[in-house]
Amino acid sequence: MERTINTPALISNDRIVSAGSLWGFGSVEEALEAADGHIDKDKLFIPPHVSVPLHVEPPVDLPQIETDGPCGLVVHPFFLDEPYPADVYIMGAAGSLRNPRELLKAVLEVKEKTPPDSALYAPALATPANLALLVYLGVDLVDSTRVVVDGYLGRYHTHDGTWNIEDLRELPCRCQHCRALEEEGRPDQNPNPNLRMISDHNHLKLEEEIRLVREMIRRGCLREYVEKSVRVTPEETATLRLLDQEGRYLERRTPVFRKNVMYSNTAESLHRVEVARYARRVLDRYRAPECEVLLLLPCSARKPYTKSRSHRLFAGALGSWRKRIHEVILTSPLAVVPRELEEVYPAAHYDVPVTGRWDLEERDWLLRCLDAYLERSSYKKIVAHIDGELREAVEEHGIDAVYTGGGTNGEALSRLNAAVKEAAIDASVLDQKRLRVRAVTDYFFGSNSGDLLLAGEVRIKGREIQDGDKKTLATLTPNGTIALSIEGARRLEPMGAHIVEIAEFLPKGDVLSPGVIDADEDIRPGDDVIVRGEKAFGVGRARMSGWEMVRATRGVAVELRRVEEV
Ligand SMILES: [Zn+2]
Questions:
Q1: Any bridge partners for residue 537, and if so which?
Q2: What separation in Å is there between the alpha carbon of 184 and the centre of ligand 1?
Q3: Which of 488, 491, 465 is nearest to 540 (CA)?
Q4: What separation in Å is there between the alpha carbon of 204 and the centre of ligand 1?
Q5: Exposed e or buried b for every residue in 418-443, given b needs 16+ CB within 10 A?
Q6: What is the pLDDT of residues 374-411, one digit of tens each?
Q7: How far is CA 470 from CA 453, 458, 461, 487, in A?
Q8: How far is the CA of 99 from the centre of ligand 1 (A)?
Q9: Who contacts 431 (Cβ-Cβ below 8 Å, separation ≥6)?
Q10: Residue 34, pLDDT above cutoff 80
């Protein structure tokens, strides 16, 4: 469009030109002819479409209509093959999506079958209470149809739910429309409320909500906001839970790190992609060091744990014995955090209400992860410096360990020191710096990539990894990721992971998605990637998932850091 619309957005009728439903024309030919005169580069053009209820298969297939300007295509979520290319896909009969399973299925169907760089428009569905959830599901455009119509039916919308105006003794909003309404008298005693004003209030609340949602997206905390917002109805909460159960849809779209703190305030937080991904990578990709003694520690409010008062006290108590043991932190919701991965998102970026209580779901998740972790490792002894319900959970589960009782006072720290000293008396010293680099590399690039990066003569200076000629191979970033140099990328290239194949050109600046020929399906936004083509070899950071780079026809795929001509 000539004027930009930043999504998610509330789209108004004056930005749309619709040729209308096929049923309004005498024949298909007549409808297609009518579509010809409707081209305006600043309006979304919707060609003639077949309007049918949600579960009715459209009886006619209309041919594709060529347009010069932005085009919106009406699609029927449950009868969708390969839709024609369009800028916006409009979900037919979206307004009748009420059931959580149906809503989820409809959105996922359309999103999976349409290009990632097109927008999804769900008409007549949004309310101030469900808007955040709709956007989180992947809806980019909404309108105020539903709330405006509801206003004329005496339905009063707020961010916290919907009421019949005659049930309200006072109005919770003080906008100009609500003030005017109250001037007519108490809403529950007014037989003829001004419905137009209710409608205007509803529209205003939806506008406010879309602004708030966009701000949450900018801050990277839409998920937290959705976890809170869905409490308005059991249906919305069910939709979020079903979405989390589905798993794959969100996983394919979730970046590997964010700058903001991840709040784990609700039961749903335990099922976030970030939590499941961290646990899975620790169990699948991470390899515990060959070490005799495992020390289990509790988490701390301050992150990374190393910087907290309690962990500094533990380190002090361990003294030089610390070099001979392996530390793992037990925490909710991440379960098992090896010390080497404590900076990796979200281990250094989460906050959880600390009460000392571990509910049954948290316990179950922790113990399942711990069992799986221990099964893959070869420790001979475990020292558990944990207390309270955490200790209770681990001990009752039958983990064979020396339980020191936990704590940070002098006596507690002496017990920690004594237990570790006794366990680690014959243990050999570990190369902690090297283990950290190996763990972080494996976490992002897959098992064994760390050994490949660290092969031969390698020096680790602070956060930098250098080869024998002092050339930088990679850098551990403060975000908890690892950034490869060209030399480092050459070492990892044979693994075949995180490779973006580009066409025959030497990119300058960023790699745009039309230049991408193929990309590793596992790449997620924020991942470090290796860019490879006939004329170029480089490294950069992914701005899209690998599958999106391949399917999208616009947008930045990779922010290049270094590139060389080949
Ligand atoms: Zn109001």
A1: 532, 564
A2: 14
A3: 488
A4: 7
A5: ebbeebbeebeebeeebbbbbbbbbb
A6: 999 999 999 999 999 999 999 999 999 999 999 999 99
A7: 14, 8, 10, 11
A8: 28
A9: none
A10: no
Neighbours of 363 (CB within 10 A): 18
CB atoms within 10 A of CB 537: 19
DSSP-based three-state secondary structure for 466:
strand
Give dist(CA 34, CA 23) in Å, integer: 13
**pTM exceeds 0.85 for this model:** yes
DSSP of 324-339: GEEEEEEETTTEEEEG
Pairing of the two strands 556-565 and 536-542: antiparallel
Q: Phi first, then psi: what are they for 351, rounded to 5°?
A: -140, 140
State the distance from the centre of ligand 1 to the C-alpha of 207, rounded, in angstroms: 12
Residue with tokens 């205007």: 200
| Neighbouring residues of the ion ligand 1, judged by CB less than 5 Å | 173, 175, 178, 201
156 Cα–ligand 1 center, Å: 9
**Structure-token pair, residue 488:** 């480092």
Q: 122 C-alpha vs ligand 1 centroid, how far in Å?
A: 24
- The dihedral region occupied by 496, where left means phi > 0, alpha psi between -120 and 50, and beta the remainder, is left
Q: How far apart are the CA of 202 and the centre of ligand 1, in A?
A: 7
Ligand 1: centre distance to CA 201 (Å): 4
Q: How far is the CA of 100 from the centre of ligand 1 (A)?
A: 28
Residue 360 CB contacts under 8 Å (≥ 6 apart), including other chains = none
How many A from CA of 509 to the centre of ligand 1? Answer: 48
At residue 37, the pLDDT reads 64
Instruction: Decide: 52 and 43 in contact? Cβ < 8 Å.
Output: no
7 Cα to the center of ligand 1, angstroms: 25
CA of 200 to the centre of ligand 1 (A): 8
Find tokens 């590139």 and name the residue.
Answer: 563
- DSSP state letter for 49: B
Which two structure tokens, joined as six digits, stand for 234?
């059991």
CA distance 203 to 10: 10
Give distance in angstroms: CA of 463 to centre of ligand 1.
54
Confidence grade of residue 39 (pLDDT, cut at 50, 70, 90): low
For residue 515, pLDDT beyond 90: yes
Alpha carbon of residue 46 to chain centroid? 31
pLDDT tens-digit series, residues 521-563: 999 999 999 999 999 999 999 999 999 999 999 999 999 999 9
Q: To 10 degrees, the CA torsion angle through 256, 258, 259, 263?
A: -120
Distance 136 CA to ligand 1 centre (A): 25
- Compute the distance from residue 143 Cα to the ligand 1 centre, in Å: 18
- Given the structure tokens 């007014």, which residue do they identify? 190
